[in-house]
Every structure is written in C-alpha cells, then in structure tokens.
Amino acid sequence: MAIYFSLVGEWRLASFVVIVGMFLDGLDGRLARLLDVTSNFGKELDSLADVITFGAAPVALMLSLSPYSIFFHIAGALFVFAGAIRLARFNSQPTLKLGHFTGLPITAAGGIAATATLYFHHLPTFFLPLTFVVLACLMVSRVPYPDLKGISLPKSAGMLAVFILVTILLLWFARRWVFIPLVLYALVGSGWHGALWRRLPHAWRVKYEDRKATALRRRALRREKRKR
What we know:
The chain has helices at about 1-5, 10-35, 40-65, 70-90, 105-115, 125-140, 155-175, 180-185, 190-200, 200-225; strands spanning about 100, 145. By secondary structure, it is mainly α. It folds into two domains: about 1-190, Up-down Bundle (Four Helix Bundle (Hemerythrin (Met), subunit A)), CATH 1.20.120; about 190-228. A two-stranded antiparallel sheet has the order 1-2.
C-alpha cells in the first residue's frame, strides 16, 4: 500500500503506512505465538514482508520525491541490499549479545527512512539520500541494538483491538515526532547511552539488570515449552 501511495503522489500517506507497518511488525510474531500458529513458512513470509515494507517501500517513497537523481537511486539500491543482508543474517546467524540484535533492525531503519521524507522540503536535498546510506551501513554493521519486543501486551482480545486502534490514531497525529525516538534508537550504537547509563544510581542499574535477566529467563522457558 505504501508503494501504491508513493506512485500516485500521496507520499505523506505512504510514510504513515510504513509507520503503521512498523508498529504491526512488533505484534505479528507475538500474536502467532499466542495463537500457536508459528511455522517456518510464516517466518520466511514475515522476512519477505519486511523487505517490501521497510526496504522497498521507503525507497519508492524517496524516489517519488526526486525520481531523476542518480544519488537517490544509488542510496535506494544500497538501502534495499543492506536490508536483505540484515534479514538473511538475522534468520541464519545467532546474535552476538543476548537480548540484542546484531545491526540496526530493518524495521527501525525503514521507520526512520519513511519519517525522514516528511522533512524533505525543510532540509537540504542531500539529507535524504545520505540518511538512507547511513541506515544501510548501520543495518549491516555488528553494532548491538536492544531487543524491545519484550514489552507486554493486553491479553484480552477486546483490549488488544482497542490498544491497536488507539496506537494507530496516536501515530497519525504524532507521525512527524516518531522520527525522534527512532533516531535515538539508531544512535544507541554510538555509545551515548553507555555514558548516560553510568551516571544513573547504582541501585537503579542493579534493579534494571535483575528485571532484564528475569524477563530473558522467562522468554527462554517459554521457547523451551513451545519446542516440547
């Protein structure tokens, strides 16, 4: 749908569709596990959907803003290629750090790329293709990024539906501001969060690490139960 909106010139709607796709991507795996319908076919289909939604769609969106620039085409090609490599590595290789992704997830990269287009007319022209190139490099990097999919969801079907609808409405009104937390997440690899972390009180850090370790153990136990 985002690609279609890009082709017909509705680039703001295309950006919003990618943002919604980013939110729904965080739910599909958990919903599949909740309904006990996980399969290898579903995993491969999810990866294909990710390449299209967060790789091809943001590139189509960028090219709709400047279709004749060679720099935009090169940046778009690099972005899609890096996204495919990132997903292939995620599906075939173990993570280097427990509870973390290796390289910037394509979901976050696609979200940043899509929301960056909202500022296209307010920033220099080179900003957009440069953003795509930087994101491509972060996706294929070995920088660890925290896995935020451990956030709990409402277990009631009705409450979950309300949660999804309310979140989509909030994303529509705050679509320009989504860019900020996504960029901060991408900057995690630069080390600024480590300096901030060291300034927090020791008791807070210990409490956070204990909760994180407990959550990881629970996730591992759930995986073991599903395998049985």
